[in-house]
Amino acid sequence: MKIAASLCLGVSLLATPSFAEEISVGLAAPLSGPQAYFGNTWHNGFKLYWDKLNAEGGVNGVTVKYNQQDDKADPREGTLVAQKFCDDESVVIGLVNFNSGVAQSTLPIYEDCELPTMTFGSNPDLTKQGYKFMVRPVANDLANALLPAEYALQKLNAKTAVIVSDKQVFGQGISEIFGTNFTAGGGQVLDTLAVAPTDVDFTSVLAQIKAKSPDVIYVGAVMPQIALFAKQMHEQGVTASLMVPDGGYTPDFITQAGEANVQGTMVAIQVPPMDASPAIAEFAKLYKEKYGEEAGPYSIYGYVHGQILEAVLKSTKGLSREEINDALHVVKVQTAVGELEFDDVGELKVAPSYLYKVEGNDFKLAGSR
Amino acid sequence: MLGTFIQQTVNALTIGSIYALIALGYTMVYGVLRMINFAHGEMFMLGAYAAFLVLTVFVGDIGAVGAFGLTLAFFGAVIAVGFFGVGIERLAYKPLRNSTRLAPMLSSLGVSLTLVTGVQILAGPQPVAFPSFFPTTRYDLMGGTVTSVQIGILVAAFVLMFALYTLVNRSRMGIIVRAVSESRPTAQLLGINVNLAISAVFFSGPLLGAAGGILYASYYGIMSPTMGAVIGLKAFTAAILGGIGSIPGAMLGAYILAFVEVGGTALLPLITNGVLGTEYRDVLSFAILILVLLVKPAGILGEPVSEESMVYKREF
Question: What ipTM describes this predicted complex?
Answer without folding.
Answer: 0.74
